[in-house]
Amino acid sequence: VGESVESVEERLRRLEDREEIRRLTQEYRRQLDARDLEAYSQLFASDGEWRGGTGYGRGPAAIRDMLAGRLPGNPGPPGPTSWHLVSDPEIELDGDQATGTVTWALIQRGDGDAPVLRLLGHYQDTYRRENGRWRFQRRVAHTDIPHRELSGS
Amino acid sequence: MTRAEGVEARLRRLEDIEEIRQLFTDYAAALDGKDFAAYADLFAREGEFVAGAIRAKGRAEIRALVEGMLGGLLGAELGQDFHVIANPLIELESADRARAQLTWLYVVRGPGDQPVLAKLGHYDDVLVREDGRWRFLTRSAPTDIPAM
């Protein structure tokens, strides 16, 4: 009986962990598109890293400041109105750590007021449970179409 | 709370989120399958659908509204238009009530049998558990692109 309670606890925890990580990846795109970079930066662990075409940052404050300086705004109509679509993540759990891969697409309001698929890429993620919450330990944003090589490693 | 009650509550939460995600896919399937009776049944008795100036309340009104969109806002024939849903964010507010936000894409069969991204918008939902299953109390479906 003791064994079965333990395994129920573990099985439940795994499902909760997956659900929380899914949610983390959705909060990321929501705060990013809303350009709420303060809330966005809080999704990273205290020494969490972000790397992508826009640059590199380590720690929530540094990531926020780097993106605030370089990321174009996201004005609503008649501006471009960017929307990220993110796929369900492929997640590998390992205790308080996890890795994941997520496909992303960027859609903008184009000429003729129609949605245009601008970019397609994927995120390579490492997640960590910090103070009881899953956060990004590392997120690398690769752009696959059009292909762009990330500088550095 | 005993351990068994804690496990029960945690399991219920996961089941609720899963069921709500399923509701979203059922919605797109009923809409694209043009099964408007099934579509209307995904709403609560007092359920409401809102899209800009368009508004309908109750299953009969909602069904009549979408039937009236055939050949206009919706393709007249099966297989000509598709709703792609993404980005679900679900907040459980109580045992029987939740809120959600999603992004939708409306894809149609274009010239040369090519897919065309016709529109992009989002859903703002209020969900309730009624008669043992999750349903829409309000589904608001604003279009974001085109904007004009």
Describe the protein in words.
The complex is a heterodimer of chains A (153) and B (148). With 153 residues, chain A is an alpha+beta fold. Chain A contains three helices and seven strands. Helix content of chain A is 31%, strand content 42%. In chain A, strands 1, 2, 3, 4, 5, 6 and 7 form a seven-stranded mixed beta sheet that branches. In chain B, strands 1, 2, 3, 4, 5, 6 and 7 form a seven-stranded mixed beta sheet that branches. The longest helix of chain B has 30 residues. The radius of gyration of chain B is 17 Å and the shape is elongated. The relative contact order of chain B is 0.17. At the A-B interface, helix 1, strand 3 and strand 6 of A face helix 1, strand 3, strand 4 and strand 5 of B.
What features would you highlight for this structure?
heterodimer, A: 153 residues, alpha+beta, seven-stranded mixed beta sheet, 3 helices, 7 strands, 31% helix, globular, B: 148 residues, elongated
Brief sketch in words of this structure:
Chain A has 153 residues and is of the alpha+beta class. Helices cover 31% and strands 42% of the residues of chain A.
